[in-house]
Amino acid sequence: MAARFGLRPGHDLTAVMAREHPLAEVVVDGPEGVRFLAAGRGVARLAHMSFEEEQGLIRAFSALDPAPDMLIADAAALGDDVLPRSVLAAGEVVVVVCGGATDAITEAYALMKRLAWDFARRRCHVLVCRVRERERAEVVFGNLRDTASRYLGLELRWLGWIPDDESMRKAERLHQPVIGAFPDSGAAQAFRDVAETVSAWPFAGEHGLGGFVQRLVRASRIAALDGDH
Fold first, then answer.
1. Could you tell me where the beta strands, DSSP code E, fall in 86-195?
2. Which of 52, 50, 6 is CA-nearest to residue 174?
3. Which residues contact 62 (CB under 8 A, 6 or more apart)?
4. For residue range 97-135, what is the model confidence (pLDDT) as tens digits?
5. Sign of CA pseudo-dihedral 41, 42, 44, 48
6. What is the spatial distance between Cα 105 and Cα 139, in angstroms, rounded to a whole number?
7. Is the pTM of this model over 0.90?
8. Which residue in 112, 203, 106 sits closest to 151, CA to CA?
9. Is the omega angle on the peptide bond into residue 163 within 30 degrees of 0, that is, cis?
10. Distance CA 191, CA 111 (A)
């Protein structure tokens, strides 16, 4: 994700776990106040940390200054093998559906099935993207909502939609967020609407970043035990 903005992190979470670099040196500042942490390889190693290493990592995240308003784990970037860890640790789950492609909708439903059947999720949010009209986005969401409710017992909540806007492609070529590069575009307004909705979500009691890291470590150990069986 950071590469979309022309950012090249020099280190990842493994450097923090090995105490080679402090977390503040590994986190990369991006546009619009967003910071990035390359975590894929490090997350895969969380299950094998000692108690002392776990506590050290929790302290490192808890001391991050300034503390972030929200933590977003990009499960697609982390890889399918890491999905159980992020799902079990997250307060809320957002499934992004590319509404313009049938295969993408099918893949989104398969992910929802896994959320419900494998990880006992009873609710998730849906963001529909790459469609030209809101009506189409609502149709995609409605079909998924009805099917997930009927066959999975999973409640889907509408988070919003992002139009298939040329400004998105222009902003990506410029390595800039569309909100900053083209603030008056339809895509920029759609992202502002989504951000407003997310900022109003009730606090899930995560006890800050340290609490999330603790849950992520526990989820990694559960996933490792499942893998052993």
1. 94-98, 123-131, 155-163
2. 6
3. 208, 209, 210
4. 998 888 889 999 998 998 899 888 999 999 999 999 999
5. positive
6. 12
7. no
8. 112
9. no
10. 23
